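Q: What would this chain look like folded?
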Amino acid sequence: MALEARGQTHSRIIPFFLVGALSSLVDIGLMYTCTTFFEVWYLYAAAFSYCCGIVVNYLANKYLTFHDTSTKTAVQFATFTAVSISCLIVNLGIVWLGVTFFALTPLLAKIIATCLAFLWSYHGQSRFTFRNAA
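A: My prediction, written as structure tokens:
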């Protein structure tokens, strides 16, 4: 049974990646729009855009990746958000380090940060948020 569950968990990594790519497009697109067109400071824009990406990511993962039918949506979204906030802290730290110490553009630093946060996000969401999904 444990081996079957493990295989099922690993089979979800590709849909999780695709949903992550979608939410990353929302995240990075909003950050770009906020910094370029509205001249919002890059860290404020990164935090705002990440939060919007969280909502897209939660809904798509709940229904498309994990096919979750739980009715405890508020608790589940709170758990999803907690895992996502831990990723946000890592994400913002990497963006700040990339811009401040490595002279990267905020957009390039954001792309690198998003890639590095992917594995923790998958582990956290599959272990904590959607652990009881069918």
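Residues 2-129 form one domain.
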